[in-house]
Amino acid sequence: MASTIRTTTLPSGEALPVLGQGTWKMGEDSRRRADEVKALRLGLDLGMTLIDTAE
């Protein structure tokens, strides 16, 4: 699947996606793990390459 996520270019020339996924609060409830993994995989399948893991 081709990426449909737009990018922006930094002054250094590096391109970054303008949209990413946040993971805050993920992994805190084991009962939600399967849904959280599915959400991350869907984002990757849709072309998201930025995953923010900071709180």
Characterize the structure shown.
The chain has 55 residues and is an alpha+beta fold. The protein has one helix spanning 33-45; strands at 7-9, 15-17, 21-22, 51-52. The protein has one domain. The protein is 24% helix and 18% strand. The strands form 2 sheets. The chain has a two-stranded antiparallel ribbon with strand order 1-2. Strands 3-4 form a two-stranded parallel ribbon. The model has no long low-confidence stretch (mean pLDDT 91).
Brief account:
This protein is an alpha+beta fold and 55 residues long. The chain has one domain.
Average pLDDT? 91
The proportion of strand residues reads 15-25%
State the separation between the terminal residues, measured CA to CA: 30 Å
Which strand order spans the largest sheet, edge to edge or round the barrel? 1-2
**Number of DSSP helices?**
1
Contiguous uncertain segments of 5+ residues? none
Tell me the total number of β-strands. 4
Largest sheet: 2 strands, antiparallel
Shape: elongated
- Structural class comes to alpha+beta
Q: Output the helix-strand order.
A: EEEHE
Roughly how much helix do the residues carry, as a percent range? 10-25%
Whole-number count of domains: 1
| Radius of gyration based on Cα positions | 13 Å
